[in-house]
Amino acid sequence: MNNNISEIIKNRRSVFTNQFSGEKVPEEIIEEMLENANWAPTHMHTEPWRFQVFENQSADRLMDELARIYKLRTPVESFSQAKMDKYQLRKNQISHAIVIILHKSLRPDLPEIEEVAATAAAVQNLWLTLASYPGYGGYWSTGHLVYTDEFRQFLKLHENQLCMGIFYIGKIKTDTPHTPGKRDDWNNKVTWIL
Ligand SMILES: Cc1cc2nc3c(=O)[nH]c(=O)nc-3n(C[C@H](O)[C@H](O)[C@H](O)COP(=O)(O)O)c2cc1C
User: Fold this and answer.
1) Reading across the β-sheet that carries 49-55, which strands appear in turn?
2) DSSP 55
3) Cβ neighbours of residue 45 closer than 8 Å, sequence gap 6 or more
4) Which of 40, 79, 155, 173 has the fewest CB atoms within 10 Å of its CB?
5) Quick one: how many helices (H) and strands (E) in the chain?
6) What percent of the chain has pLDDT over 90?
7) What is the pLDDT of residues 22-70, one digit of tens each?
């Protein structure tokens, strides 16, 4: 494990499913990711993050469901068979898929944006933990399908819950080069108030 936090933050990349070998990521890493996610900051201690972890057969069912919703929700003129095929291919690429769920506390004194922020911070903890292990990677996937009623039903979400996407995890193929990443200079986003 690499302990230099600035290095881990800057080297964390989105690694996509076509860069995964299909091999499993050790369960201890997945558990460490989820445990660290749970240490995210949380206003009023509502701890609004929830995760559903899919692997093996359940990950296959998740891909089948996304393909089904894609077909159902996509107008014929914009339907792409290649996109449909992607869900099938993913079955042989991913190790785990973690569905990110916002569990709203419904406290009238806590704006929803603060619970969204806390859940995003939990995802960053999860992602940085994974990024500290060379050879493993993942990315946060959203897209309109994750917000549909059909997907909500599949996940059995309660009224106060919202899906915020899927975090795909895999072992990176050995010939994959590390992408350097790209950001505009931080100085351009900061105003020092004197
Ligand atoms: C909330 C959120 C949703 C995202 N959804 C997608 C997505 O649906 N598809 C995708 O390719 N990347 C998605 N990403 C990843 C971004 O594309 C990626 O973080 C960005 O390109 C910067 O690359 P890096 O993560 O390697 O630094 C998402 C990132 C965030 C924070």
Assistant:
1) 49-55, 96-103, 161-171, 136-141
2) E
3) none
4) 79
5) 6, 4
6) 96
7) 999 999 999 999 999 999 999 999 999 999 999 999 999 999 999 999 9
Question: Whole-angstrom Cα distance, residue 65 to residue 97?
Answer: 13
Q: State residue 3's pLDDT score.
A: 61
Mutation test of ligand 1: which of 8, 18, 70, 141 has the most ligand atoms closer than 8 Å to its C-beta? Answer: 141
- Report the separation in Å between the CA atom of 88 and the middle of ligand 1, taken as the mean of its atom positions: 21
Exposure b/e, 47-62, CB count within 10 A at least 16 = b: bbbbbbbbbeeebbeb
| Residue numbers in the chain where pLDDT is lower than 70 | 1-3
pLDDT attached to residue 106: 86
Distance CA 16, CA 86 (A): 12
Secondary structure of residue 54 in the 3-state scheme: strand
**Exposed (0-12), middle (13-18) or buried (19+): which is 64, by Cβ within 10 Å?**
middle
Whole-Å CA distances, 95 to 35, 89, 169:
18, 12, 6
* Closest listed residue to residue 44, CA positions, set 121, 124, 102, 118: 118
Helix, strand, coil share (%) of the chain residues, nearest 5: 45, 20, 35
Q: For the domain with range 8-175, which CATH number is right: 3.40.980.10, 3.40.109.10, 3.40.50.300, 3.60.15.10? A: 3.40.109.10
Query: What is the Cα–Cα distance from 145 to 170, expressed in whole angstroms?
Result: 22
